[in-house]
Design brief:
Residues 8-133 form the Pyridoxamine 5'-phosphate oxidase N-terminal domain. By secondary structure, the protein is an alpha+beta fold. It has four helices and eight strands. The chain has one domain (3-136, 146-169): Electron Transport, Fmn-binding Protein, Chain A (Pnp Oxidase, Chain A). The structure holds flavin mononucleotide (FMN). Residues 21, 36, 38-42, 45, 58-59, 61, 63-67 line the site of flavin mononucleotide.
Length: 192
């Protein structure tokens, strides 16, 4: 049944890299702050870097809760459920950081992914605890395909349109914390 693992071993790596969706939970420090839970897992946007590190490409979208909470306190839990094959649930508790598309090391991190359309950041998680549980209650589901909507939607906006969208939607979390406020204001002379 449930087990705590020393690290992400080859079996766990194979399992989590095969999942088409995973879930990311973060929270602000404020006692009355809103806890966030986001689905992720667009094909090709997740990778296991090593036994203690995972990363994914964070696509421009209507919210930026994960970024806001990581920038405030770093706490994060990532969960993978087996919707096919043997039952399993894997949780990775750790500390995450945001590598913004404006950061010097973005290109190096982004090189791990093939499709960068709409990317605003790479989220890098240092995993402090690896555990699994039985997954006996997880339903069996068939993956019918990707919707292929988010990245084309962002691609149609172009780089400037994505920056406009982020300035409008991503600057703060729903609690008002700084989120993705990296895009230079249109009046700024040049990106930092
Ligand atoms: C099934 C599913 C998979 C998703 N996969 C991703 C993904 O791989 N990367 C991503 O940035 N957003 C993905 N999204 C959108 C996110 O759930 C979310 O809206 C967006 O990333 C903002 O998340 P945040 O508020 O946690 O920062 C996905 C949404 C769904 C419904």
């Amino acid at each position: 049944m449930g087990k705590v693992h020393e690290q992400i071993d080859d079996r766990l790596r194979t399992f989590i890299q095969a999942q088409h969706v995973f879930f990311v939970a973060t929270a602000p420090l404020a006692a009355d702050g809103r806890v966030n839970l986001s689905p992720k897992g667009i094909d090709g946007t997740f990778t296991v870097v090593d036994e203690r590190t995972v990363a994914w490409l964070d696509i421009t979208a209507s919210g930026a809760e994960t970024i806001a909470h990581l920038r405030e306190n770093g706490r994060i839990t990532v969960m993978f459920c087996a919707f096919t094959g043997p039952p399993n649930i894997v949780r990775l508790h750790g500390r995450g950081r945001v590598v913004s598309l404006y950061d010097a090391d973005f290109d190096a991190w982004a090189a791990r992914f093939d499709d960068l359309r709409g990317a605003r950041a790479v989220i890098v998680v240092h995993v402090e605890r690896v555990s699994d549980s039985c997954g006996y209650g997880v339903p069996l589901l068939e993956h019918a395909g990707e919707r292929d909507l988010l990245q084309p939607f962002m691609e149609r906006k172009g780089a400037d349109g994505q920056a406009d969208y982020r300035r409008l939607k991503n600057r703060t979390s729903i609690d008002g914390l700084p989120a993705f406020d990296d895009d230079p204001l249109p009046t700024d002379p040049a990106p930092r």
